[in-house]
Amino acid sequence: MDGGELAVRLRARDHGAAAAVLNLVENRTPPARAAAAELLRDLSPAALGGEPAAHVVGVTGPPGVGKSSLLSRLIAEWRSQDRSVAVLAVDPSSRGSGGALLGDRARIEHDPADERVFIRSTASGGRLGGVAPATRAAAAALAAAFDVVVIETVGVGQSETDVADIADTVAVIVQPGSGDVLQFLKAGIMEVPDVLVVTKSDLGGAAARALADVRSALASLRDGDIPALAVSCLAPPTGIAALVTALDAHRAGIDLADRRIRGRRRQALREFAAEHGERGVRALGGQRAVERWLDARDPGLDVAALVDALERAAGA
Ligand SMILES: Nc1nc2c(ncn2[C@@H]2O[C@H](COP(=O)(O)OP(=O)(O)OP(=O)(O)O)[C@@H](O)[C@H]2O)c(=O)[nH]1
Ligand SMILES: [Mg+2]
């Protein structure tokens, strides 16, 4: 369990190190936590001399809309562009919260002999649609080695804000005939997606209507500049290359460092609050004060280092 050694392997883009990274960040023993902290420190933007070049993509949507099927297709597309891909799927099924009907649920398909694809399901850590600290840590570490890092989460509504703080680009996936997401968007419950995907476009008229509905809802939200695309993941798949183009275009259009820095600070605040409760936040003068305090930290610090600093400041 040597965090420094793993960091060196990831910086050399050794994709074979990914499994060891996941095992490390999921291990809650004190020596493993220390090694994970070392790993993340060695891979922080401060240590790397800048943000890692990976595109971190969030793929989120209600149970059974076709997220895993879509990822199979996206992986094939990314690989055809010679990009390496790591997928961290946050699996809430252990909590009995549903998902695609048992047996109807697709696995993410890929060529098992392809060492430049890594896929791992992790537990959601108790929050539906939430992203466990281990997943957040794994994504940060793997971004040093892979071209694309995907976090797949199940959820609609507030739960997807976790992934918005980790990902450069969030794609929200909906299927024809489901009004939830539209309602959430209109009610402002849901963070606005960066790209909206209507899947199962092979369903014909229902899919076309869903796309039109989504487009009009988005147009009323934010200058109409959020792309909405239709895809089908049945063979032969359609719309996948256009989706990759839209994801890339979003990434090219943002201030990447700014988004990531703010995301890390929000994650640190959320993690600190989860660990120390309202009391912990109050001890630091309340949420606003903590936010201001975080804003004054070195922008290259990783989330664990920020949480550490908060704990020291709180004397916790
Ligand atoms: N017709 C059609 N069916 C699809 C398409 N994509 C997925 N499906 C089907 O929809 C069901 C659910 O697909 P999954 O990929 O497992 O969906 P998911 O969102 O990953 O599901 P959870 O992980 O349980 O939340 C499966 O039966 C798929 O075969 C599509 O493009 N067209
Ligand atoms: Mg799935």
Task: Walk me through this protein's architecture.
- The chain is an alpha/beta fold and 316 residues long.
- The protein folds into 2 domains: 199 residues, Rossmann fold, CATH 3.40.50.300; 62 residues, no CATH class.
- 48% of the residues lie in helices and 13% in strands.
- The chain has a 7-stranded parallel β-sheet, with helices on both faces.
- Helix 2 runs antiparallel to helix 6.
- It is globular, with a radius of gyration of 19 Å.
- It binds guanosine-5'-triphosphate (GTP) and magnesium ion.
Which secondary structure elements does this structure contain, and how are they paired or packed?
Blueprint: H1 3-11, H2 18-26, H3 30-42, H4 45-48, E1 55-61, H5 67-80, E2 85-91, E3 117-123, H6 133-142, E4 148-154, H7 161-166, E5 169-174, H8 180-187, E6 195-198, H9 205-219, E7 228-230, H10 240-253, H11 256-283, H12 287-295, H13 303-314
Helix pairs in contact: 1-3, 2-6, 5-10, 11-12, 11-13
